[in-house]
Design goal:
By secondary structure, the protein is of the alpha/beta class. The protein has nine helices and five strands. Strands 2-3-1-4-5 form a five-stranded parallel sheet, sandwiched between helices. α2 packs across α5, α3 packs antiparallel against α5 and α6 crosses α7.
């Protein structure tokens, strides 16, 4: 049985790092952010929709999406951000569903869907577990600026998400706090993964046993 694990949480809290650890442990990882990048490649129909909505200034001179410029527009205006998401998300979801189906067909022990909008976009309903990756707000700022994000833009991106952790906690199966040491977070993720995949195997064995019992009864 392939266990489906959704990873979500505030920006800068380590979702991609957790995803990389799960990849090392044998899971197939689907990064919704990377899928979103793929669907707006130069010349794509989705990029044309983005340009129609936000103007040609969101393109670089060579016709690629200027993510920094677009980010400054949408993270300063909730309505603009929602408009962008209404363009991107319908194109992203089928790609993610297809990747999940491929992982299940391959017999992978787990498939991980990493997405900020895991819950809001309905992807959590496809998952057996939802992991909320969190950290302190100060740590968020440190990590974002370490990536090259200007401090004022980092604050803007954090503010744009609002009280995201409070919104997501009711949907979370597990909470992974990465504020402490990397080693502790890594150990917590490893333990959680082994528990999730073990539960998946046990569920699969129970289903097999029940099916055999039904056959014998017949």
């Amino acid at each position: 049985m392939t266990v489906r694990i959704g990873i979500t949480g505030p920006i800068g809290c380590g979702k991609s790092t957790v995803g990389s650890w799960l990849l090392e442990l044998g899971a197939v990882v689907v990064d919704a952010d990377q899928v979103a990048r793929d669907v707006v490649e130069r010349g794509s129909a989705v990029l044309e929709q983005v340009v129609a909505a936000f103007g040609p200034d969101v393109l670089t001179p060579d016709g690629e999406l200027d993510r920094a410029r677009l980010g400054r527009i949408v993270f300063a205006d909730a309505a603009q951000l929602a408009h962008l998401e209404s363009i991107i998300h319908p194109a992203v979801r089928p790609q993610i569903v297809g990747a999940i189906e491929s992982a299940v067909a391959s017999g992978a022990p787990a498939v991980v869907i990493e997405a900020i909008k895991l819950v809001e976009g309905g992807l959590a309903r496809l998952c057996d577990e939802v992991w909320l990756v969190t950290c302190s707000e100060d740590e968020q700022r440190v990590r974002l600026t370490a990536r090259g994000t200007a401090p004022d833009e980092a604050d803007m991106r954090i503010e744009a998400q609002g009280p995201i952790e409070a919104r997501l906690r009711p949907a979370a199966t597990r909470v992974i706090d990465t504020s402490g040491s990397v080693d502790l977070a890594h150990a917590e993720v490893t333990t959680a993964y082994r528990a999730a995949t073990s539960a998946g195997r046990s569920g699969s064995e129970r289903q097999a046993g029940e099916s055999e019992g039904e056959s014998e009864g017949e």
